[in-house]
Amino acid sequence: MHDDQHTPGFAPWSRRELLQRSGFGLGAIAFNGLMQQLAASENSPNPLLPKAPHFPAKAKHLIHIFANGGPSHIDTWDPKPKIAEYEGKELPGETPRTERKTGALYPSIFKFKQHGQSGLWASELFEKTASAHADKLCVVRSMHADVPNHEPSLLLMNCGEPRLVRPSFGSWLTYGLGTDNQNLPAFIAMCPGGYPIQESQNWQAGFLPGIYQGTYIDTKHESVEKLVENVVNRKLSRTAQRRELDIIQRMNAQHIQTRTNDPMLEARIQSMELAYRMQEEAMDVFDVSKEPKHILDMYGPGVQGRQMLIARKLIQRGVRVVQLWHGQGQPWDNHDKIFEGHKKLAGESDQAIAALLTDLEQHGLLEETLVLWGGEFGRTPTVELPQKGANEGTISGRDHNHWGFTVWLAGGGVKGGQAYGATDEFGFKSVENRVHVHDLHATMLQLMGFDHTKLTYRYAGRDFRLTDVHGRIIPEWIA
Amino acid sequence: MSFARSTNPLTQGTILRWRISLLWQACMLMQTGLLVAWTLGPGRAQDPKLDFFESKIRPVLVERCYECHSAQTKPGELGGKLRLDSAPATARGGTLGPAVLAGQPSESLLIKAIEYNDTSFQMPPDGKLSDQQIADFKQWIADGAVDPRSTDTPGPNDPAADIAKKTASHWAYQPLAEPTSVPPTPDLGPDSDSIDRSIAQKLSAKGLSFSPEADRRTLARRLYNDLLGLPPTFAELEQIVQNPSQEWYPQLVDSLLQSPHFGERMARRWMDVARYADNKGYVFQEDREYPHAFKYRDWLIRSFNNDLPYNEFLRFQLNADRLDPENKSGNLDAMGMLTLGRRFLNNPHDIADDRIDLITRGLMGVTAACARCHDHKFDPVSMADYYSLHGAMLGSSEPGGDPSAMRMVDKPDQGPTKIFLRGNPGNPGPEVPRRFFGFLTSYVQPEMKTGSGRLEMTEAIVDPKNPLTARVYVNRMWGWIFGNPLVDTPSDFGVRCDPPVQQFVLDSLAWDFIQQGWSTKKLIRRMVTSRAYKQQSYHREDAFAIDPENRLLWRAQRKRMDFESLRDALLLATGQLDPAVGGPSVKITEAPFPKRRTVYAYIDRQNLPQLFRTFDLASPDAHAPLRPQTTVPQQGLVLMNSDMVLSMLGSIGQQSAALGTDAGIDSLFQRVLARAPSPQEKQWLLEVLQASGDSAPDLPESRWSYATATFNPENGTVENFQALPRFHQNRWQGNNDNLPDPQLDWAFLSAAGGHPGGRLDQSVVRRWIAKESAVLRVRGLINHPAEQGNGVRASIIVRGKEKVGQWTVLHGSSPTHVDDIHVEPGDTIDFVTDSNSDANSDSFEWKVRITSPDELRSKANSQRDFRGERLEPLDVWQQAAQALLLTNEFCFID
Questions:
Q1: HSE-up of B269 (CA within 13 Å, CB side)?
Q2: Are residues B721 and B794 located together in one domain of the fold?
């Protein structure tokens, strides 16, 4: 178990390590020459080696808990008592256009309460997270996006652009920072049961090199060999594998003797060793069955608890970005029976989220990990009108709402215990201190040590960036 | 491609300002004739309107606008080329025309900008003016916009003029000309190629010279890789080495150019240019597949093999609907280049944009995508240029069906060509004539008037006078053959692209390429017979110190095999390669792991398997100028562990073993590395070959087995326990692929559950065997999800006869908990499911955990522990083969 140690970052082999690991000590090879070459290679072609951001920052990792489908802000983090006063009545003024037709104002049934020293409001749906962590949360109630549809909104939230092929936030971060642990993928996207809407485009590398793309893990599976591709050799023992690798490395050492100063050859020699080590590391990190009972109990049963616990283990080992999707498709998309739906979904995740924050904090990781919770948009305060084929013909749900919604941030340099911005009195539109998704991205990059206007990549004759030509940093969020 | 983080020279503010300037410019196009003369008058302080200006307007202008719109603004950062620091400058306006229309506040762009209503058009960018200030500006304009600042400020540097100047002298936009002759150097001789002489001249100017010529084996391996993407076999190499002819090298080049595998190699490279995929990317409901995409790929292979002239090659891909309308020669399939792109939820403008990008960057090295929203900032590409191509794309439709699914034809009615302001289709701007790139009109015929204009566009691209098309293709080809292109940015030959060090080589090859009838094979022959190509790839301290990036070409570039070559080489070495040419795409990442060449791999645009990206395959999302080259451990994991690679090792082990140790090792080396082993290497391999007994994988030993048995539900006896014979599609079942099986009926067990057969002797049993004495608990849940049938019966039986629990479930679930089960080593706990006498609708889920009495320690978990067939471990010969296949020697080309 490596639980209590932060796995050190990548370091080139020491000569002794090389001798130990690859059984080179037989005198046949010119080690000195080989090792001098390896030490001399600075411009390694491994693009995932750790890199410094533009300026020092607290946050070094990102966990994005994606409540995909569009969680209702007015049932969770943005209390609107006014709706109850107008129950059954039309929204005064014109109802903003959303995906489908909505009718009268439809109050939440969930009880809201203030939590912590800060008195942050939260509904009973996220009672556990709020009661344990209210003072760490920066709840942004004034988010807005561009359109009320899942596909473009997912791409906007993840890639900063609603339609065209662009790198995801995680890919940009991985491009900018590399990763601290070469034995694990740098950017991991977990979604139980299959892909969310828009599928792997949500963690795409776009025009960045493919290595920056998120690695998808279907956390429905419990066994590690099913979770991580190619991490287990089903036909060979470790011992036999090591023996094979020793032959490979002797052949390689012989080969490189006359082919000096070639970083590609050197890098491949090292990458084979890393691959060998990755097997063990991955087996260990994705297996939660050996975790102590009090930890398993804290996270609770079910797949949300399991994947959040894996997330903590990954961050602890230096993985740069972890994205945790609630589930396949769009689970939070409650066009009908929203109260039952949200109760179930929050019930599945509240304890796990609270546990994740507690666990990160207990491991001293919360201050270096930026945590983002939210969906691609929120939901309307007005009830969705029944429509055959669209909802179940009931009058019990809310439509998509990109005009106003809530996300929250915690950890990594975030000023907690505050609700930032506001929607109108009914929670429809963001009106005060409005925050566009680009602004969220700009500020998150800032928290991770980047000037969002300078984290760029030259493609098709232009320097592209996550925030395109937009983005405004919100200083109030930064501790 | 550089991995280094580049610094954007622009601040966010300047980008915003600049964007708005372009909007301004576009608006000007619409407002011809609307210009209202600026009201000027001598300053008179007593005038209340002047007072108003001085007290309300000027301070705001100074404070909030001058930074970006005045003489003090740095050249190049002047927003919208607009100055607001004098009345005449304001009267001239910026590139979008006047900012202020005196007397017409609601028509004035200045007001539109400061009102902040259009999110894309907001000034000042750092925050809205106060409502009072905005009201003041409106009043000022309504009152005639009186402005005493009559001294004109100098006009700004005009970026358009700057671009025009650079365009006129930019190397890549100059016409190709017959190359000047280069005198031979002593060591190159009178027959030498002028490109070698030019390279040698540059080398010698730095005191350097070519590296020595590589040996035959190295050259042959290099040629095979670059022309075919396959390594030579040992026998082929021997033949080449022993060829007594002086002409062995040109003979080899010609024979490889004649190989049908040549077309496969070139086609796959072109597929990066053409962002080939077998499906559309994300869609809502419609079918995602492009089932005929492979016909385009096969057309490419044929065309390269037949050395179809490059101008014809492009004509078919852009315009085959005119050249082969009935697809009689199969050339209509060439239109797949345009039509096989991402579908962007069928947004026609995004589809057109993707095609324009492919045509402009892919064929001419012009980056036009910027001009969708604004004139290009650096290159001479205007919105009118962009929307001309946009019109040509939107003026074409895809009727589908016969004669080719990938066909495109001109629509009978062509709408007007309109610029979309800011790229927004909801905001159409002025109509423009459909014309090919303005900056090329001195070389090519600009009018695009036949139908959609695609015809003339095509002809302008392949016009021998087009300075870009041949240069761009020759540069790509150089990169494919030599490892690095001459111009680092193969899809951007714009004005920011410096002339390459070897410009003479590029230009003379491009000239010659056109003179030689656009023949790809002749071009390649000239490249690979050059002295530059035939050099060794070894490091040289002297040369490296002077030219570390090898721009002067003092050595050949050592190459790592790309993904396709590597996989193909693995298949070839292990004797598994299916050499057939052409045909439908195959999913190479899925069992049974087809053994066709990688060019035939099914490319899933939406969810490209991790394998491809791990090995740097070009993203099929958009035209790819270059592949990145990364070295990461995931590549090692694939080679070490993937079922795909392990599946290749099937027969090579046996075949080598059959020869005996010594000859077996020789044979392995010949097959994998195409050479004989040294005594030392033999010794190394012997270490693997003589190892014994520890090759089986370290997977935890399974204590579960999966069987049918004869079950007596009353007394709980489990008899006639027969392991389910076959593992298929993640479940244990009868021998038949499809159920029901003649012997075992519907009986199967999967990780989560299963299905019993109809009779009691076809009950399914998941058996766990205890390793030590213990007291245990079972915690579980059985579920019968079907709404039909009579349900299933679940029983837990210890030691084959003691019934400790039994439940019948029908359309629902039940916990299956049992406490205090005492077991001794070797005792069994059976989880038996029978059909409850009717096998209809009897699928069930039954997950169980076996734990210690306090439930803290899990002893077993039926779902997590579930395993399929235990695979035969690799034998020692297969291990030896895998070791050689994973060496650097195998996967690098000197």
A1: 23
A2: yes
Measured between beta carbons, the chain A residues lying within 8 angstroms of B118 are none
User: Each residue of B612-646: pLDDT tens digit?
Assistant: 988 989 889 889 998 878 888 889 999 999 999 99
Residue B190 within any structural domain of the chain: yes
CA–CA min distance A241, chain B (Å): 8
B767/B667 same-domain check:
no
Q: Is the peptide bond before B190 cis (omega within 30 degrees of 0)?
A: no
Question: Is B610 contained in some domain?
Answer: no
Check if the interface score ipTM surpasses 0.90: no
Is A471 touching B (CB cutoff 8 A)? Answer: yes
Orientation angle between helical segments B503-515 and B520-528, nearest 10 degrees: 140
Decide the pairing of beta strands A418-420 and A378-384. Answer: unpaired
Claim to verify: residue B462 and residue B479 sit in the same structural domain = no
Q: How many CB pairs under 8 A join A and B?
A: 270
A51-74 pLDDT per residue, tens: 999 999 999 999 999 999 999 999
Return the bridge partners of B708, or none.
B722, B764
Tell me the CA distances in angstroms from B786 to B379, B781, B839, one per residue in order.
65, 16, 12
A positions 414-453 inside 8 Å of B (CB): 452-453
B532 and B418 assigned to the same domain: no
Counting as low any pLDDT under 50, the low residues of chain A are 1-43
Provide φ and ψ at A194, rounded to 5°: 135, -170
Residues of A in contact with B621 (CB under 8 A): 165, 204, 206-207
Q: Which of B564, B600, B595 is nearest to B585 (CA)?
A: B600
User: Cα dist. B291→B281, B300, B332, B404 in Å?
Assistant: 13, 17, 16, 11
Tens digit of each residue's pLDDT (9 = 90 or more) over B132-177 = 999 999 999 988 888 888 776 655 556 667 788 888 899 999 999 9
Dihedral in degrees, nearest 10, Cα atoms A222, A224, A226, A230: 170
Q: Which of A163, A229, A241 sits opposite B610 (nearest CB)?
A: A229
Could A45 and B345 be called an inter-chain contact, meaning their C-beta atoms sit closer than 8 Å?
no
How do residues B796-847 score in pLDDT, each as one tens digit? 999 999 999 999 999 999 999 999 999 999 999 999 999 988 878 899 999 9
**In contact, A228 and A282? CB cutoff 8 Å:** yes
- Looking at residue A300, the DSSP 8-state letter turns out to be -
Judging contacts by C-beta atoms under 8 Å, the chain B residues touching residue A262 are 539, 558
Q: Is residue B612 part of a domain?
A: no
Per-residue pLDDT tens digits for B71-104: 777 666 677 677 888 887 776 666 666 778 888 8
pLDDT given at position B158:
60
Tens digits of residue pLDDT in B274-319: 999 999 998 888 899 999 999 999 999 999 999 999 999 999 999 9
Residue type, A386: P
Q: pTM, whole model, 2 decimals?
A: 0.76
pLDDT in tens, B410-428: 999 998 888 898 888 888 8
Show the domain range for B666.
650-697+873-893
pLDDT band at residue B400 using 50, 70 and 90 as cut-offs: confident
Strands A321-325 and A61-66, by their bridges, are: parallel
- Chain B residues touching residue A452 (CB < 8 angstroms): 12
Buried-state track A383-418, b at ≥16 Cβ within 10 A, e below 16: bbebeeebbeeeebbbbbbbbbbbbbbbbbbbebbb
Same structural domain for residues B539 and B554? yes
Task: Report chain A residues whose CB lies below 8 A from the CB of B640.
Answer: 230, 233, 241, 245, 272, 275-276
How many residues comprise chain A?
479
| Number of folded domains that form chain B | 5
Q: Does domain A62-228+286-477 have CATH number 3.40.720?
A: yes
**Chain B contact for A259, CB < 8 A?**
yes
